[in-house]
Design goal:
The protein has about 240 residues and is α/β, with parallel strands linked by helices. It has nine helices and five strands, in the order αααααββαβαβααβ. It has a five-stranded mixed β-sheet with strand order 1-2-3-4-5.
Length: about 240
């Protein structure tokens, strides 16, 4: 994969300056969260990520930054915690963060064998946001690898709308946050459905998509960071713990 072109200091500064001017000229109906404003004013990481995601398009980066702040305010991302997400989904082991990829980025694991179409998508996505925010607070705005674990998943677990919503969440709300998107041990039965999934993934997501089996997973996650079910050395069983 080609290395993304990094923005210049001038481009970052232009986004920052024009965003703050826009906010002053057109104050949002509900003020943006102080943590998000501090992230914009005191650091260049977020703006740099957006500029890279949008191919150095300053106008688009400003627009998306504004939309992102509006969404984060309405969604309550800065105040999301273990008490205000669906407790069952938080603790049932479908979604959790554990270990790291070879580049040192945390694995955000979605265990599709534990998924059911009867689950509420909004509540599931909120659990994903909870883990993303938790990781990005622990290590400032670090990337994650989205690890779609298809081990033992069958047609009954397949939920294209849910997968589509996860991809859209990253594309619109956390652009440039995934290091890789790994789809591991895709059953043959689900190959046709996976082609549909690839059809609605943006080009940027397809660039970082990796479909793995036990034979080649160690190209992206080493043996000590791989669960036993993936052919690795880690016999971890998920049990929710607060940070």
């Amino acid at each position: 994969m080609s290395q993304a072109v990094q923005p210049s200091a001038e481009q970052v500064n232009e986004v920052k300056t024009r965003f703050l001017a826009k906010m002053e000229a057109e104050p949002p109906a509900v003020p943006f969260h102080p943590s998000d404003l501090a992230r914009i004013k005191d650091n260049d990481v977020w703006i740099t990520r957006l500029l890279v995601a949008y191919k150095l398009d300053v106008e688009k980066a400003i627009l998306r930054l504004y939309q992102n702040c509006e969404w984060r305010q309405s969604y309550g991302t800065n105040d999301i915690n273990e008490s205000n997400v669906n407790q069952e989904y938080l603790k049932d082991g479908e979604i959790f963060v554990h270990n790291h990829d070879k580049d040192g980025h945390p694995l955000l694991i979605v265990d599709m064998s534990k998924h059911s179409k009867s689950k509420n998508h909004d509540d599931l996505l909120r659990v994903i946001v909870y883990w993303l925010e938790r990781v990005q607070r622990e290590v400032y705005l670090q990337k994650v690898t989205l690890f779609m674990d298809m081990t033992n998943a069958g047609l009954g677990n397949l939920d294209l709308d849910y997968i589509k919503q996860i991809i859209q969440l990253f594309e619109t709300k956390y652009p440039n946050a995934p290091n890789h998107i790994v789809v591991h041990e895709l059953p043959f039965l689900l190959n046709a459905a996976f082609k549909i999934v690839k059809g609605f993934m943006p080009a940027e997501a397809l660039e970082i998509l990796r479909v793995t089996t036990k034979k080649d997973i160690n190209e992206y996650v080493d043996k000590d960071n791989c669960l036993k079910a993936w052919g690795g050395n880690d016999d971890y069983t998920f049990r929710f713990a607060t940070n």
